[in-house]
Amino acid sequence: MKNKFTELEARELERQLAHPSGKTGIEVGKNMNETNIGMTLNSIEFLELKNENSVLELGHGNCGHLGRLLDSAKGITYFGLEVSETMWIEAKNTNADKQAEFQLYDGETIPYADNFFDRALAVNTIYFWSNPGKLLNEIERLLRPGGICVLTYGDKEFMQKLPFVGQKFTLFDKNDIEKLVGKTGMRIVEFKDETEHVKSKTGEAVERNYTMVKLSRL
After folding, report:
1. Which end of the chain has a smaller Cβ tally under 10 Å, C or N?
2. According to the model, what pLDDT value does residue 206 have?
3. Strands 205-217 and 143-154
């Protein structure tokens, strides 16, 4: 793998995964949508969407999955937040025919009122949160009582083997998640482990192990 993928290429890919930008960022966004679609669809199912739910997604990328999310129940209202202007523009362009609201944000403060959402979702983005404790408290604030949040992430042991995973990534295992959530007013409902065979960001076939954790606001 290392012979095909130089250190310089690995660091550029890492930078783009953390914050896609420009023409390269658009291509990285397309690749992320393709390679993460299984994780994303499983996460949507794990979210237990109900009719008329309002849903917040953090780090939606180009949001090529939005149609399937909206079809999961009747009357879903969707709100997406991104730190990447490139992905924000791509998501709006990709989903111009759908009812959705996309906003840029600073990655720490969520620009919505308390008790605004029934559901929240973040797939493959927690590694790049600058302040995960603060952002989890923000999610707690905006969820209605009984609201559900699903966080999905590649397992630490698997992620450590990937050549593009460097200092911009903060990796997590279940103990790390339990410590984070323990400092909030949410509780862990369930961990769910999954394995899938996908093409990695470097173009090679890999067996990816990932975890979905379902949180509920008390």
Report:
1. C
2. 85
3. antiparallel
Structure letter (DSSP) for residue 21: -
Pairing mode of beta strands 117-123, 77-82:
unpaired
| Domains, the chain, ordered by start | 7-217 (3.40.50.150)
User: What is the C-alpha separation between 18 and 15, in angstroms, rounded?
Assistant: 5
| pLDDT less than 70: residues of the chain | 1-4, 201-202
Task: Specify the pLDDT at position 198.
Answer: 86
pLDDT score for 204: 77
| Residue labelled with tokens 């009984």 | 146
Q: Which two tokens stand for residue 153?
A: 């992430």
Residues making up the chain, counted from first to last: 218
Which tokens in the block code for residue 203?
């173009």
Name which of 123, 164, 117, 166 is nearest 140 in CA terms: 117
The residue among 84, 91, 151, 153 whose CA lies nearest residue 121 is 151
